[in-house]
Structure formats: structure tokens, C-alpha cells
Amino acid sequence: MLRTDGVRFSIVRHAAWAPGLTTAQAWADWARAPFPITASGSEPAVAAMPSMLRRRAGFLGKMALEVAYQCLETRADVPTVFCSRHGEVARAVDLLTELARGNLLSPTAFGMAVHNASAGLFSIARADRANHVALAAGAASVEHAVIEACGLLADGAPMVLLVVCDCPLPAPFAGFEDCAEQPHAWAWLMTAACADPIALSWRADADTDTDTKAMPAGLDILRFQLSGQADLERLANRRRWRWSRDA
Questions:
Q1: What is the distance between the alpha carbons of residues 137 and 135, in angstroms, rounded to a whole number?
Q2: pLDDT score for 209
């Protein structure tokens, strides 16, 4: 049964990718002393995906797919939750720009701009019919994605794959950023709480605004997981979220 005051889960495998951070050791070093991650022009190889499908994915999608493949490996029939606060907004801006110029839109470009595009590519490439969900929930997107994943575990799924990815907003929306967005993607293969469980709890806090930390939520939470810190508190969507190592 899924509790309403918090969730508990364990991570049995994880992966992360960002420009310049492509190995477990590089991420461990970053977690000890975080630094801003900037786009470098490099892209993940996503070698496990057939090239015909891989070509459709943009930079954000390739990051998400890379960590999904790394984390899931050959496992099949695992439900997936893809989470991105902004999604393929850069593609959407390109499409809107073309419309404003009176040009016809590419059906492929339009199809890959929707929020579940990467999840769809992943399931098609693997011929995997397991349930997949793509969501965005503002500043608390990761927390809501974890709740969704834990709901699937509570419904009987032995494992759930969580994939989180984001990039800086394109220029027309840069003024709306409330944190220093950085390109990154990570994945957790989650199970019901067993060894080294993590707990996520929350309570309403209507008088508190969303945190405006320099580090985006996805990286803040990833650092909590990788560094082994005891707890992390975040304020988002009028709630106080608490991540903790649960004995």
C-alpha cells in the first residue's frame, strides 16, 4: 500500500551522464565538490539503440536514453517513469519559430517535441511493452516522479526505472529560469525498500516560496544520493520535501 505521508524505496542500480561527466568516478568527484556543468558539444553515444531511431533524438533525449540503457541493461518488462521539468522545450521553440516564419513543420520534429518522446523511442527500440509514464511537475518534478514510481511498486511492480533529465532553457524563456539549469540526466532502478533505503516525506508549507538555489533540483537530489549525505530538504510547489537515508 502506498502511504500518504511519505514513501520509501531502494536503488539497486544507477547511472548518470552530463557533458564532461561520463564515468562513475567523475560523478563521485563531482558529488564531493560540485561545479557548474556546461554544454561542451559532446553527446552520449547511445550505442545500444539502433541508429535509425537514435538519429531522431535530440541532445536531451540522448542523455535520457543513455542513462536508461546503462541502468536497465537487458532487463525487460520494467515500468519506466521519465521525468523532465522542461522537456524538449528547445525543439518546441524551433517549431514555433518555423510557424511564425510561415514554414511547414516536420512531422518527425513535432513528434519528438512531445514530453513522452524519449520514453516512446526507448520502448520501441527495445520492443518492450512495459508501462511508461512521462511527467513534469514544476520545481518538484523529481519528487512527484519518485511518488509515481513508488505507486507502481506498491501496485506490484518488482522494479521501476526512473529517468530524470533536463537542460537550460532556450533564449526566449531564459528569463523564467529560477535556478542555474545545467545539462544532465540520471536513472535509478528502484525497488521496494530493502537494503540502504531512501525515504521521501513532505508537508504543506503554503507560506514558503520555491527555493532558488544555484543547483537545479535534479542535480541537488543526485548529489544527495551519490554523496551519502544524511538528508536533504527542498522547498517547492508549496511543500517542504525531505529526503533522508532511512535505517
A1: 7
A2: 60
